[in-house]
Specification:
The protein has about 375 residues and is of the alpha+beta class. Helix content is about 30%, strand content about 15%. The strands form 3 sheets. It has a 9-stranded antiparallel beta sheet, with helices on both faces. The chain has a 3-stranded antiparallel beta sheet with strand order 4-8-5.
């Protein structure tokens, strides 16, 4: 069953062409529940569908697990703390986490910027993560590895490469960033994220823990078996965010507001009010859009602090995808044109999966 609507919050009715485009795209995704949501300068069109019958709560109002698509939230948090002067990108993580603790010289050189941009030299996950995770790889790989263990693994690490010299995607590094910011501010990560990002952007349906029964989307394995809610253990900053597709759009609309669109104000729903006039938030939103590094063959891949950054016929696109044991998410926007795409699916990724390619196509191929 499917439905395409212009939401009441929209600044304009849904365009029939956009509605058809989303319906066609959803048909290429095989999942119990699919949500494809597009915002054009605040005018929203949302298509919901999938192989399962819809429940009592509309799919676009259920909180979905974002997995690695949580990282842009961590990036915006760091950028705002820097804008406030509470930390610096070049602050050394070990000095903030455990002042005076003896660590490997390479660990001593790892900065907050290195952790966020995947240039710390740390592996994707700590070496001792796998023995406890493998026996429950398909049910709860992260829950048995708490925050203090992540910190200890960092302090005794031996980075593979000198910090700042190579790009290697690392859930470990971004998780360490979360614990470092909590230590530097004396504020738990969940509270810090809410104070600095979620509350100012009015993301009332975004959180880092499962909500009340019936408010959460249920993930599925490839065979359709339901999957329990993800417990990220000590890797909260790297993958614990849960958000409704509507809140995901609000988050993206904040990034497009004023980005080559004629000023700092936004016509998007939920993006007006005193919170968004804070200069540190505006500075953070601008900072995370700025390209900061290149990698890969001939340095063709560009990244901002927290977003993958690709060219398109309609200007640069910034995006991040994520997957958990039974769900997938995609966040992306074009700062030059005010287009934003949020997508979710409630089944586990597999080799023939079309979810990311489909969502990415909506972002890069849509005029």
């Amino acid at each position: 069953m499917t439905d395409t609507t212009a939401l009441p919050e929209s600044a304009a009715p849904a365009e029939p062409a956009t509605a058809r485009l989303l319906a066609e795209a959803a048909g290429r995704i095989d999942a119990p529940d699919v949500v494809l949501a597009v915002s054009r300068n605040g005018a929203r069109t949302v298509h919901t569908g999938g192989g399962a019958a819809p429940g009592p709560v509309p799919r676009e109002r259920l909180a979905h697990e974002l997995g690695s698509a949580s990282k842009p939230y961590a990036g915006l948090l760091l950028a705002r703390l820097v804008a406030q002067g509470r930390v610096r990108y070049e602050d050394r993580a070990a000095d903030l986490l455990a002042p005076g603790f003896p660590v490997h010289p390479a660990v001593r050189r790892i900065t907050l910027r290195h952790l966020l941009t995947h240039t710390s030299g740390l592996p994707g996950l700590p070496a001792d993560f796998y023995p406890q995770a493998v026996p429950r790889w398909s049910t709860d790989p992260y829950g048995g590895y708490p925050a203090d263990r992540v910190v200890r693994a960092f302090l005794r690490a031996r980075p593979r490469h000198r910090p700042g010299t190579r790009w290697h995607y690392s859930n470990f590094a971004v998780s360490v960033l979360g614990h470092t910011l909590a230590a530097a501010t004396g504020t738990p990560w969940e509270v810090l994220l809410h104070q600095q990002v979620l509350a100012p952007l009015r993301l009332d349906a975004t959180r880092v823990r499962p909500g009340p029964e019936g408010a959460e989307a249920v993930g599925h394995r490839r065979d359709g078996t339901p999957v329990p809610a993800l417990d990220t253990g000590g890797f909260t900053a790297a993958g614990a965010v849960r958000a409704t597709p509507l809140d995901m759009l609000t988050f993206l609309e904040a990034h497009t507001a004023g980005a080559g669109l004629g000023g700092p104000e936004s016509t998007g729903p939920g993006l007006t009010g005193p919170g968004l006039t804070d200069p540190t938030l505006a500075a953070a939103l601008a900072e995370v859009r700025r390209p900061v590094l290149r990698r890969g063959l001939r340095h063709t891949h560009t990244h901002t602090l927290t977003w993958f950054h690709h060219p398109s016929p309609y200007g640069p696109v910034l995006f991040h995808a994520g997957a958990t044991l039974g769900q997938q998410a995609f966040l992306g926007f074009r700062p030059d044109t005010g287009l934003a795409v949020a997508a979710t699916a409630t089944r586990r990724v597999h080799r023939a999966d079309t979810f990311v390619a489909t969502a990415y196509g909506l972002l890069t191929e849509t005029p």
